[in-house]
Each structure stands twice: as C-alpha cells, then as structure tokens.
C-alpha cells in the first residue's frame, strides 16, 4: 500500500504519542455528577481564553452549535446565517428538527455578509412572521475557503443584530486558525458574541471534542441542551486532557498549516485547466476548480498517494493539518503539476 498524504480534512489527524500520554495521565471523575477535574480545568481555561464566564465541553462541533441554538431560541424563532454556513448545510437540519426554528439565509462572497444584509433579513414584529432571534457567524468560513472575517465586519454585523434585539453565536470551529492568521485574540473575537463554539478535533489535532463559552446563565441552559441531546459524558476528562494538551502545544503551529496551504495553492496556480487565486487562501483550506470532472480528478490524484475531496462537479477541497508535514508538501507540490497537467 502506498503511503497516503491526507488532505481531505483537518479532522483526519491522529493523536500524537505525547497527547495520548497526557490523556492517560489525566485525573478523572464523573462529569455528569460535575466532578471531573480535567473537564473542569478545560472549561475554566476556555472561559478565560474567550473572555467569558463559563464553558461547556461537548463531543462535537455540531452539538456545540445545536446546544447553543437550543439554549437561545424557542420554537417559532428564526436564525439568520449565511447560505454556506455549517449550521445550515451540514448539521442535518437540526435547527428545525431539534429547536423548531426557521432559518433566513444570507448571501455574500466567501461566506461573509454585511450589516445591510442582516437588517434586510430581520422580520417585522408582526404575528404573521417568525421571530428573528439569533445571528450566526462562522469564522473561519469553511465553504468560504477558510476565509477570516475582518474584525470590523464582525463588529458591524453583530451591532446590527443587537439593534434588533437578536443574540449572536460564533461558530468558531476553526477560530484558532482565524486568530493565528489575523493576530486577533480569541477574546477579542468572542467579545461580539453571546455564545462561541470551537472545535478541538480539527486543526488542534484532538480525537474528539468541542467547547461552548458564554455567560453563566446561558451555559446553564447549554448544559441542559447537551443532556437532552445525549452529550453529557462521564470520565470525559480523558478527552479534555487531549484538548488541554492541544491548547499548550498545537496552537502555535497552526501558522505552519497556513503556510503549507499557501504552498499548495501556489503550486496549483500555474497548472493548465486549474483555477485558483492563491491570495484567497488565508488559512488551512484550499478550494480549486478543475475543467475535468472533480470526482475523476480526485481519484486520479489518490492513485498517486494524495487524498482530497471533491466538493462540487468541478470543485476540489484540500485541507492542511498536523497530519501533513514539510516533506509531504514537497511531494504534493512536485506531484500535482505532473498529475493534473492536461486534466
Ligand atoms: C466541522 C465543523 C463543525 C462541526 O463539527 P463536527 O465536530 O464535525 O460536528 C461546525 N462548524 C464548522 C464551521 C465546521 O467546520
């Protein structure tokens, strides 16, 4: 079997030996009974990092978003988010199924929108209409090519939402990458939102886990939502230990993932039949278009030991992470032009 260079997602990372050692060494309790010391430590650490009162650990990013939605809405409420957002596209319609909400979709380049778009989506306070309740912003924006929201735009859209009495949720699955790329602190991003979710199982390289940070009352409601969704766990400190390890050891290296993504984008840019603007690659996600059928190209590239995902008829996604290193990048940047030439 040839050795695969896996660029399908930053979720494919395996825990390192040092991370596994930290997990094995962690003191554990019962988090449903509220006494797992490693969970408590992680929640406190995250609350501090994001400048919030409290935090709640959950198994997945989807549960983080859906617990935050459940905690801040009632049936008949409406959520406002971008058409390309994870909450809308990739969480099985949970906003409707689990929280009884409707959803208003915004458009805009790279998964971003403007305050006027928010204003236009707000429903009048009239008994005919759903109640506009919650704005969701995704940073970095996955389907937007890993784009980082400018802080100014975040300030503007959340201020507009607040003017109409809405709450604001940040889907920060990759907020670590946004912060590493922009230099804006996690707390500065979080300041504009009532709730923030972040994933440990992507660029930070943990096997499992996400966090939600907010004020104490909201986290109290998030806890209830987590229980309802089946996400309250027992000796989950073993997972929190991985997250604590990652906060200490895997955040500084995210800039390497971004440099790797940039290298791949530049190597793709010169290829006939491939279209990509390397300047749009701000973090660890690369989307590029091919003239040929994307699924066929992905298969061809895979036969040369490089895995990517087709994400549209002519669109391919590659993501860099802890799973790939400098020497993998040498292989990728040498192979792709050869393999993709004349596709
Ligand atoms: C991956 C992701 C999620 C959900 O994470 P899971 O752990 O896969 O449920 C949420 N939002 C964004 C932007 C993501 O990329």
Report the C-alpha radius of gyration, rounded: 20 Å
Beta-strand proportion: 15-25%
How does the helix and strand content classify structurally? alpha/beta
Distance between the first and last residues' Cα: 25 Å
Q: What's the β-strand tally?
A: 13
* Total of helices: 14
Describe the structure using short key phrases:
14 helices, single chain, 42% helix, 343 residues, globular, 18% strand, binds pyridoxal-5'-phosphate, four-stranded antiparallel sheet, alpha/beta, seven-stranded mixed sheet
Describe the structure.
The structure is a single chain. The chain is α/β, with parallel strands linked by helices. The protein is 42% helix and 18% strand. The chain contains 14 helices and 13 strands. It has a 7-stranded mixed beta sheet with strand order 2-8-7-6-5-3-4, with helices on both faces. Strands 9-10-13-12 form a 4-stranded antiparallel beta sheet. A two-stranded parallel sheet has the order 1-11. Helix 1 (17-25) packs across helix 11 and helix 6 (115-121) runs parallel beside helix 7. The mean pLDDT is 96. Bound molecules: pyridoxal-5'-phosphate. Pyridoxal-5'-phosphate binds next to helix 3.
């Amino acid at each position: 079997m040839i050795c695969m260079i896996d660029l399908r997602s930053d979720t494919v990372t395996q825990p390192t030996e040092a991370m596994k050692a930290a997990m094995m060494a962690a003191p554990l309790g019962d988090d449903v009974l509220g006494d797992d010391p490693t969970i408590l430590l992680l929640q406190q650490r995250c609350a501090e990092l994001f400048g919030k009162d409290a935090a709640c650990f959950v198994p997945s990013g989807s549960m983080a978003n859906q617990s935050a939605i459940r905690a801040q809405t009632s049936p008949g409420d409406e959520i406002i988010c971008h058409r390309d957002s994870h909450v809308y596209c990739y969480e099985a319609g949970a906003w409707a199924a689990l929280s009884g909400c409707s959803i208003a979709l915004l458009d805009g380049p790279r998964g971003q929108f403007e305050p006027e778009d928010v204003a236009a989506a707000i429903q009048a306070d009239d008994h005919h209409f759903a109640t506009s309740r919650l704005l969701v912003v995704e940073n970095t924006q996955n389907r937007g090519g890993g784009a980082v929201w400018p802080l100014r735009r975040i300030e503007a859209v959340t201020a507009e939402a607040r003017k109409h009495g809405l709450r604001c949720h940040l889907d920060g699955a990759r907020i670590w990458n946004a912060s590493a790329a922009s230099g804006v602190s996690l707390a500065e991003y979080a300041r504009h939102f009532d709730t923030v979710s972040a994933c440990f199982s992507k660029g930070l390289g943990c096997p499992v886990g996400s966090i939600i940070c907010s004020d104490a009352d909201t986290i109290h409601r998030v806890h209830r939502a987590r229980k309802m969704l089946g996400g309250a766990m027992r000796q989950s400190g073993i997972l929190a230990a991985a997250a604590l390890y990652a906060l200490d050891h895997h955040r500084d290296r995210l800039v390497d993932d971004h440099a790797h993504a940039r290298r791949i984008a530049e190597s793709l840019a010169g290829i006939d039949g491939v279209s990509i603007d390397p300047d749009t690659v701000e973090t660890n996600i690369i989307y590029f278009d091919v003239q040929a059928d994307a699924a066929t190209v992905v298969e061809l590239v895979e036969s040369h030991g490089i895995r990517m995902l087709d994400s549209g008829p002519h669109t391919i996604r590659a993501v860099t992470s802890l799973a790939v290193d400098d020497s993998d990048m040498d292989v990728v940047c040498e192979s792709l032009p050869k393999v993709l030439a004349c596709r």
